[in-house]
Write a structure and sequence with these properties.
By secondary structure, this protein is an alpha/beta fold. Helix content is about 55%, strand content about 10%. The longest helix is centred in the first third of the chain and has 22 residues, at about 85-105.
Length: about 290
C-alpha cells in the first residue's frame, strides 16, 4: 500500500475497534492522513466506503465476542435476524441510522449544496424527479419548498416528468433523487431537463453513477449497506437529512418571507384540525422557533 494507506491499516490493526469508535475524520487524524485516503483504503480492501467497512468490523467483533461468551448474550448487530429481541433491534437500528447520518454529514460538500440552494432560490421553475421510495423524498422536498414560495413540482411518473422536463429552459432547475444513481426513469427525466437548458442537481450516494454524470451538482448521501437486512433502513434518513439542509438554506435566503408563508399555510389548514385538549403543547409557530 502507499504509505498513507499503510498508516490507516496500522491504526486498524493495532486498534480493531477504532472504526466503530471514530468518525472517518477522526480515524484520518489518527493515521495522519485525510478522510479521502481512508475512503480509498476501504475501497482497496473491497468495500464501497467507510460505512460498509464499519459495518463489517462491527459484525466481526460482535461474532468474536459472542463466541467467547458462555452463555452468549444478545448483542447489537449490523445484520438483523428473525429472532432478534426488541432491545437488539432497537440498538442496531439506532446505530445504523446515526452512522448513516454522520457519514452523510461528513461526506456532504457544503459548497455544492450552497450552490444548489442558490440555484433553487433563483429558479423560475423547479422540477423534482424520483420513483419508488425516492419518489416519496421528491414529494417531501416539493412540499417543503412550495410552502416557502418556491414554484416546485414533483414527478414520480416518467411520462409526466419527461413532459415537464421538455418544457424546462434557462432559469429552470431540476433535481433528480436516486439512491443508487442508476434508476433509469429518474436519469432519463433529469437528462431531458439538462438537454432543455435547466440547471440539474443529483441526490445520490454514488458520485460516479449515471445520474451524477448528467448533473451540474451532485449532493452525496451515505450508501446503503448490502449486507444489512432489510437493506434500505438508513437510505431515506440520509436523503431526508440532505433535503432538510437544502430546505433550510433556501429558507434562510428570505427568512421573514419564509416564516410568513409557513404561518399562512398553517392558518389555512387550522380549521381542519380537531381542537386541542387543555394542557396540550402550544401550536408550532413556524421556522422562527429554530432561531
Amino acid at each position: 500500500m502507499p504509505s498513507a494507506m499503510a498508516r490507516v491499516a496500522d491504526v486498524v490493526e493495532q486498534h480493531p475497534s477504532a472504526p466503530l469508535e471514530l468518525t472517518i475524520t477522526e480515524l484520518a487524524e489518527q493515521a495522519r492522513t485525510s478522510a479521502a485516503t481512508v475512503t480509498r483504503f476501504c475501497r482497496l480492501i473491497g468495500f464501497d466506503g467507510y460505512t460498509q467497512f464499519r459495518v463489517r468490523v462491527a459484525s466481526e467483533i460482535g461474532r468474536a465476542s459472542a463466541e467467547s461468551e458462555s452463555p452468549p448474550a444478545p448483542r447489537p448487530r449490523r445484520d438483523l435476524a428473525p429472532d432478534d429481541p426488541p432491545e437488539v433491534l432497537r440498538q442496531t437500528l439506532l446505530e445504523t441510522l446515526v452512522r448513516a447520518l454522520e457519514n452523510t454529514a461528513q461526506a456532504l460538500d457544503l459548497e455544492a449544496i450552497e450552490s444548489a440552494a442558490t440555484e433553487v432560490i433563483g429558479a423560475e421553475h423547479l422540477d423534482i424527479y424520483g420513483v419508488g421510495d425516492s419518489g416519496i423524498m421528491a414529494n417531501a422536498l416539493q412540499s417543503r419548498l412550495y410552502r416557502i414560495g418556491i414554484n416546485a413540482h414533483s414527478w414520480t411518473a416518467v411520462h409526466d416528468g419527461l413532459a415537464s422536463a421538455a418544457l424546462s429552459g434557462r432559469g429552470s432547475v431540476a433535481i433528480g433523487i436516486s439512491n443508487t444513481g442508476h434508476t433509469a426513469d429518474t436519469v432519463h427525466m433529469l437528462a431531458e431537463a439538462a438537454a432543455s437548458g435547466a440547471f440539474t442537481i443529483a441526490l445520490t450516494h454514488d458520485a460516479r453513477s449515471p445520474i451524477a454524470k448528467v448533473a451540474d451538482v451532485t449532493l452525496a448521501t451515505a450508501a446503503y449497506v448490502p449486507g444489512l437486512r432489510p437493506d434500505d433502513l438508513s437510505v431515506k434518513h440520509s436523503q431526508m437529512f440532505v433535503i432538510d439542509l437544502l430546505y433550510l438554506l433556501v429558507a434562510q435566503h428570505d427568512f421573514d418571507a419564509a416564516t410568513a408563508r409557513l404561518s399562512a399555510t398553517s392558518r389555512a389548514v387550522a380549521a381542519r384540525r380537531r381542537p386541542r385538549r387543555h394542557g396540550t403543547p402550544r401550536p408550532y409557530r413556524g421556522i422562527q422557533e429554530i432561531r
